[in-house]
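Following the same procedure, sequence and fold were stored together, as reproduced here:

>
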Amino acid sequence: MYGDVVVNGWARVREGCPIKVDLVGDEAQVQFGEGWRSITELVLDVEALRELLRLGELAVRAFDEAGDDEVVEQVTA
């Protein structure tokens, strides 16, 4: 009946944004921004973090391999 995702939302994180990771139990709590009014938080268990990092590595490779005129839209594996 209930899924693993509690809130639907998005955030844009740009170069220079403060990022902090706290490890609590089997979760990584990732905070973007600073100050209590501008923090967005993402909480991942170990396996979700592992998958995010795996796909993130593929995404970075796709950006690095793409020409300046090529648009990289989606990375899945």
Notes: The beta strands are 19-24, 27-32, 40-45.
